[in-house]
Design a protein that fits this description.
One of its GO terms (molecular function) is oxidoreductase activity. By secondary structure, the protein is of the alpha/beta class. It is built from 8 helices and 7 strands, in the order E-H-E-H-E-H-E-H-E-H-E-H-E-H-H. Strands 3-2-1-4-5-6-7 form a 7-stranded parallel beta sheet, with helices on both faces. Bound molecules: NADP nicotinamide-adenine-dinucleotide phosphate (NAP).
Length: 269
């Protein structure tokens, strides 16, 4: 699908980080945007700062993606006001780390509700106008951790793997409808996703200066949409990890031990 001035696009988790970078890149191409996140002030400031779209004003649509009714009404409002929905990016997510036995049940539920159910509700709501129009594209922002989950991130990785499985099946289900789907697998990206618990981050996590740019990821995602690619990994090494894990989890463990140290794959079997 061509992404340009005629595109009506919706991005969840747009108030900062990857979603904000996607919004900026889309607006730079002239797209009209609907931006979703809980932080109303940040969304209002962002919509005001983005380049204007010829197709009409950008909309700040504050909502919690984990609450189905809120997402449904935000998506329906955008589709009605913009006249249609061409591109929907389910990006909103949260991360909590630590050994599974120490992870508070509330955080297990929070990640499940926002990362997994939030994706399902967003995609479900977006498909309605897209299927009715017989055109559109969905992007699901998973993670490299959805291809090979990491210790101390068992639940986070599970929510990201759920997104992967959902997107893989749905892309096939959508064959012949005019609607397509891409799953994005970011590696470590320089955002504030982990800021709330830097002290709990496992040793295998690098982040900091070694994290990749959200702008580079946003460009890679939009390029993948234009080419109708089934998946996009960024940086590219994340895709190699997925391939290695698919061929042999033991091989992926060995690669990770070499690249990230023993905490990335402590068990040898
Ligand atoms: N950064 C990385 O290294 C990395 C790597 C792989 C995958 N990812 C994935 O990329 C996505 C974006 O992460 P990021 O790095 O950009 O994190 P971020 O900077 O913390 O941004 C997360 C975004 O999600 C929104 N959000 C969180 N909970 C929400 C809720 N209940 N309803 C609506 N919006 C909600 C936040 O807005 P509000 O707080 O205003 O609601 C914010 O806009 C996530 O799915 C994450 O798992 C990130």
């Amino acid at each position: 699908m061509e992404v340009g001035s005629g595109t009506r696009a919706l991005v969840t988790g747009a108030s900062r980080g990857i979603g904000r970078a996607l919004a900026q890149r889309l607006a730079a191409r002239g797209a009209r945007l609907g931006l979703l996140a809980r932080s109303e002030t940040e969304l209002e400031q962002l919509t005001a700062a983005l380049p204007a779209a010829a197709a009409g004003p950008h909309l700040a649509l504050p909502c919690d993606v984990g609450v189905r009714e809120q997402v449904e009404s935000a998506v329906a409002r955008f589709a009605a006001e913009a006249g249609r929905l061409d591109l929907a990016i389910a990006n909103a997510g949260v991360a909590h780390y630590g050994p599974f036995g120490e992870l508070e049940p509330e955080l297990v539920e929070r990640m499940t509700r926002i990362n997994w159910l939030g994706t399902v509700w967003t995609v479900r709501a977006a498909l309605e106008p897209m299927l009715a129009a017989g055109r559109g594209h969905v992007v699901i922002v998973s993670s490299g951790a959805g291809q090979r989950a990491f210790p101390d991130a068992a639940v986070y990785g599970a929510t990201k793997a759920a997104q992967r499985a959902f997107g893989e099946a749905l892309r096939h289900e959508l064959a012949g409808t005019g609607v397509s789907l891409t799953v994005a697998y970011p590696g470590e990206i320089a955002t504030s996703l982990h800021d709330h618990e830097k002290a709990r981050m496992p040793a295998w996590y690098h982040g900091g200066d070694r994290a990749a740019s959200p702008d580079g990821l946003a460009d890679a995602v939009l390029d993948a949409v234009q080419r109708d690619r089934r998946a996009v990994a960024y940086p590219r090494a994340v895709g190699l990890l997925g391939i290695a894990h698919g061929v042999s989890p033991r091989l992926a463990d060995a690669v990770l031990r070499r690249l990230r140290g023993p905490t990335a794959a402590p068990r040898r079997d």
